[in-house]
Amino acid sequence: MASKRKRLNLKEKHVKLRETSEIDEVLMKWFRSARAKNIPVSDVLLQEKARELGESMGLETFKASNGWMEKFRTRHNISFKQICGEEKSVNPNEVTDWIGRFKSLLKGYNDKDIFNGDETGVF
Q1: What is the CATH number of the domain that holds 49?
Q2: Which parts of the chain fold into alpha helices (H)?
Q3: What domain count does the chain have?
Q4: Contact 36, 30 (CB under 8 A)
Q5: Structural domain range at position 62
Q6: What is the dihedral sign for C-alpha 33, 34, 35, 38?
Q7: Are 35 and 81 in contact (CB under 8 A)?
Q8: What does the pLDDT read at residue 42?
Q9: How distant, in Å, are the alpha carbons of 16, 23, 84, 110 from that of 4?
Q10: What is the pLDDT of residues 61-106, one digit of tens each?
Q11: Which pLDDT does position 8 carry in this prediction?
Q12: Which end of the chain is more exposed for a tag (fewer CB within 10 A), N or C?
C-alpha cells in the first residue's frame, strides 16, 4: 500500500514538474517581451499572467500561488526593482541638439557657478 502511494506521489510530482516547466517557458518569453518594450512588470501582474497561461494551456492542477511565484522568481533570478530613467523615450537626435544649445547657454558662466537643481537645497 505504501509503495502504491509512493508511486502516485512520484507521478503527481512528475506532472507538476512538467506543468511548471511549460508555464515557466511561456511566462519567461512573455516577461522578456514585456521588459524589452519597457513595460513595468510587477509581481502581481506576473502571477496573474501565470494564472491565465495555466488556464489557456488546460493545466487544471496548476495554481500560481505566492509560493510558486517566489520559486519562479528564484529559478529565473528575477527581482523587482524600480525602473529609473526615460532613456528609451528620448529621440537621440534631440539629445544631440539640446547638448549644442546647452553649451551656448552656459557661455559666460564659470563652472563653479553651475549647479544641479538637487544641489541647491530647494528640493
Answers
A1: 1.10.10.60
A2: 2-36, 43-56, 66-75, 92-106
A3: 1
A4: no
A5: 12-81
A6: positive
A7: no
A8: 86
A9: 18, 29, 55, 84
A10: 788 899 988 998 998 888 877 666 555 666 778 878 888 888 888 8
A11: 47
A12: N
